[in-house]
Design goal:
five-stranded antiparallel β-sheet, 1 helix
Amino acid sequence: MEAEILKIDKHKSMLDDGGIFYYVFFKGKGGRNYKTCIYPKFRNFKNWKGLKVGMKLSGLRIKSDSLIDADSNLKVI
């Protein structure tokens, strides 16, 4: 699937380490909205590092109704 990054929100983690995590919001083809959650301490974070609002991505997998799988093999278009 292809989608554009609309917004990236930074939040404080409720885990014991008090770190941060990010919600990434997307607009897919046909105007549908999606999101994913990424956490810097997870192995898949390296795939998401450096992405910015407005970038278009391909290779996104839908995990459920409006949730993108954070383990997707994404590519910048």
